[in-house]
Amino acid sequence: MRVLVVGANGFIGAAIVTALARAGIAVRGVVRAADKFASRFPEAEPVEMDLRHPSAQNPDTWKSVLAGVDAVVNAAGVLQPRREGDAWAVHDLAPDALFAACEVAGIKRVIQISAVGIEEGRTVFARSKRSGDEKLMARDLHWTVLRPTVVVGDGSYGGSSMLRAIAAFPLVTPVIGDGETPLDFIHTNDLAHAIVGLLQTDGAKKAILEPASGANLSLTQSVQAYRRWLGLAPAPVLKIPQGIVKSIARLGDWVKLDPITTTAVAQFDTRLTGDATEFAAATGIKVRTLGEILSGRPAGVQDLWHARLYLVRPLVRLSLAVLWLASGLLGLFADPSVYASILESLTRDSGVLSFVAIGTSVIDLVIAGALIVGWRLKEFAYLQLAMVLGYTVTLTILAPYLWGDLFGGVLKNVPILALILIHRVLEEER
After folding, report:
1. Consecutive sets of 10 residues in the chain, 430 residues long: mean pLDDT of each?
2. What is the pTM for the complete model shown?
């Protein structure tokens, strides 16, 4: 058997690829970065494709991708797209083109990974996911739609990372609203094993299932469970009103502070529990509860580091944004005599001096803007490094005395370089 997994490099998709490989099933993975996927899964066959591109929304594009394939698992998803059209492309248009191509190719078996609660959800995530599900269910295919509850794993991503971060919050345990929102969980491995079983048995045809454990916990209980798992002492619960959380989320949308976004917050207004009985009957899988998941793998230092760094990550980025913003504005409005005294060994031409000062200030402001809106952060990290190194080398040559400046002058560039490197590492999620 050969299975095509769409979104194979994602949090859920990667677990599915691993489970399929362990079952001896050949995998072809549709991913955005084929080289990274090939490094992680050398036994799988990568296909590089961006579902947002119009070509992915053409059934003809999928013909060669489906050659020799026996079944399809679609695990592609984007919770908070930068543009609304991206959600419709990833959840609706591209999958519908894939499903149409499956019909033409005679590939009947299709498993769709959706999300619980999208029936009543009003976000673009919920609406586009729901539309994609409906289009699949209208086709002459042996489809199964899986709408899992909160998905967690040995690693973490998105919402599960946020739960860990909240659990590691210093002094208090913040929760949304009254903290009583009921949650149910499923581990990526349990979900992946269920999918392998459905493919091997060809079970649950034309069925909607909700992978869940059935052991519902409140948001407060869930966060406290993670806090105990991380080995941290209990902390008082701080209930944050919905209005404040939504305001923070709107800011998160603007500056791209995933997963502190309006979509993530809106999910707490929908159902986050599932029908565990029906799922177990259809798959034979006994889904582990959150308590069983956490007790089955003790937290390591990497888990605590990740939880705490997840809280620090936006602070690192925004502090660098303030630095570059201030640097750019000060450069634009500074008295020319300030930098003329340093650059006079190069030239005394006031026009050249102004050009250099304005040019570097504009670059500083562009970097600040990219950091504020979260645009191409990894690429701009290298530009930040180049700029700070350039400033440091130039000032060392022209004004070496600044290294001994009472207020740290050039010396401050050393920890700034380290902070930029940390920022670059934290922005590498996959």
Report:
1. 97 97 98 96 98 98 98 93 91 98 98 94 92 98 97 86 92 94 96 98 96 96 97 96 90 78 81 95 95 96 94 92 95 75 66 79 96 93 97 90 87 97 88
2. 0.90
3-class DSSP assignment, residue 418: helix
Residues 6+ apart with CB under 8 A from 73: 3, 4, 5, 6, 16, 110, 111, 113, 195, 199
Q: What pLDDT, on a 0 to 100 scale, did the predictor assign at position 260?
A: 76
Interhelix angle 242-255/350-373, nearest 10 degrees: 130
Could you give the domains of the chain?
2-152+183-217+271-298 (3.40.50.720), 313-426 (no CATH)
How do beta strands 2-6 and 71-74 pair?
parallel
Distance between CA atoms of 381 and 428, rounded to whole angstroms? 11
Q: What is the DSSP string of 291-357?
A: HHHHHHS---HHHHHHHHHHHHHHHHHHHHHHHHHHHHHHHHHS-HHHHHHHHTTT---HHHHHHHH
Between CA 76 and CA 10 the distance in angstroms is 7
CB 292 within 8 A of CB 201: no
CA–CA separation, 7 and 114 (whole Å): 12
| Helices (H), ranges, 123-218 | 124-137, 159-167, 188-201
